[in-house]
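Task 17 of the worksheet. Students: predict the tertiary structure of the chain below and write it out as structure tokens. Keep your answer in the requested format; marks are given for formatting as well as content.
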Amino acid sequence: MINVLTRFKAQGGKEQALLELLKSVVQPTRNELGGVKYELHQENEKLGHFIFIKSFVDHAAFEKHKNTGHCKRLKKEMPELIAQEPEIIILSQHA
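Model answer:
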């Protein structure tokens, strides 16, 4: 299994627009084969900071996810809404 955290920081005044864009990919991703978990969270203490917590059965499923139409749309529309490049953290579970 592969676990991934992706952190996003919205530009000032574009927090709601980024949230709506991020929410738009949740259900299509949950419908993908090979997906185990796909959750969108907002940091409590930081307005406009969002985190995807996602798990896939293997690296191949994660790679396939990155090439779906909804992920490509996200990558295309996101730059005008974010203050910095998303931080992607790939995790290996030990316990």
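Marker's comment: Residues 15-24 form the longest helix (10 residues). The chain has one domain: 2-91.
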